[in-house]
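Tutorial handout. Part one gives the primary structure; part two gives the three-dimensional structure as tokens.
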Amino acid sequence: AFVYNRDRREDETCPTSSEQWYQVQISDNDTIPPSNFPEHHAPAIPLGEGEGDAGWLTFTGTGSGNSGDVYRVSLDDVQNEGDVIPVTLNGQPEPTDSKLANFYLIQRISADSLIVAFQIDDNDEGFRLGHYQRTDNPQEDDAITELANLSSDDLDYPFPFGPNPNLAAAGDDAVFLLFGNALLKATGNDFSLWDSTEEGGSPRFVIATDNHIVWSLVTTEDEAVFQEVRLAPQNTPEGSALIRSPYSETRVRGTRDGWAYFTVASEPRDDGSLDTPWAIGVNPDLEEGFAIEDAHWIGSSLHADELNSGFGLDRAPVTEVFLRRGENLREIAVTSGADPQGGIASVGTLDSGFTAAFMGAGFGPQRLLTVFSVTEGEIEDPEGGDLSSMDVKGRIYLADPENGMLTEASTQDGSLVRGVSLF
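Part two.
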């Protein structure tokens, strides 16, 4: 299902529960009208099938300083206000005692167990971490319980600003999230400092393999600024540095059989490629790793039959991993996510002057590839002089690793698709 809102707020921020929300299920045909959520209920977090049916956690806060409550509603009962289930906070018996000012998902431990961030009111000193537990027992309430902070002497908590859900990864029984220069581990009961650097920093990415966490941050030492990729076991808070470089990134979502993939380089280019890149693969379980010179990972593919309905794409193992390599990084190649050292196969070569990126994670092995060119120039300034310009043109190609082909899916140049994550 997907949800939408017909209103656009004057300040162009996201709509909230003060507007009307609607749901359309993918199985609906054109004769079935959209289902409207109960008044003032904004869908906040999707829930897969688990102890209960697939559905949503909704939030009734308006986002303008007015607190709200959290409820659970089934996918098939969205518009039946009598079927919404209140979610209590920290065991409070009544929803009126459970009001929050802000509320969002960090990551899932399971289909029924979520790590969330919340703020009790706008005057609260910061954001807190909580655990949402869904139950199908009619004698019990769904509940959000604030996690105990086991590292209170080492962390500024409540957090002065909300943790970024894009910088969180799910382990077997916990969620690992980045905040500042620290890697935190959150379970259903508590959270703690798991790894950190001596100097401050800002996080870059986090990958959870079967038994380890690979994470990166921008940090300093002796006034030198660099990016450090670190490794920490999931069961022991003992992190160590893997590699330092001027720049690091990952465009591979997920892991396979213990492998993690990231790229280091001297710097990123305006066209989305990298200067002097090295494509890195590490497998801490096997104590193996490799580096490919003049190459960088550009994406991965997933297989639909390996999806878990409770997690969506969050836990699906990668099947193929794609990279650019060779002269001017024009060659598109692919390797197995489970056996990257077993061989790399060429898919095709880009035209001169073009670069490429995938539109997020997707099902494979065939993938659609955004291929685009960037031309810099100058335009006349009406007030005198010249202004620099950048003309971006894009095409869509089909990358077919099974047949070693890179073919155009569109035959005409067009403006680059906006609003799509290019990784």
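Part three, for discussion. The longest strand covers residues 386-400. DSSP finds no helices and 36 strands in the chain.
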